[in-house]
Design a protein that fits this description.
Helix content: 55-70%
Number of strands: 0
Low-confidence stretches: none
CATH topology: 434 Repressor (Amino-terminal Domain)
Strand content: under 5%
CATH class: Mainly Alpha
Radius of gyration: 12 Å
CATH architecture: Orthogonal Bundle
Structural class: mainly alpha
Length: 76
Amino acid sequence: METPILVKFGKRIRELRKASDLSQKQLGELTGFHKNYVGMIERGERNPSLENIEVFANAFEMSLSELFIFEVENED
């Protein structure tokens, strides 16, 4: 079963945040977003605007296309 794009994007943000050893609060401070908004993005509960997606890409010092490289799901 395919995972919705918001969930995939949220998992990607969480993965990058943890790899950067950042808390949700720290990522919020870096991006200017509230920590609750970061959590909602990570859980796939919010649909971020293109402008906010670019803010995340800049925070992780990567291109938009790199930000959208998701893990391949196992199809068991």
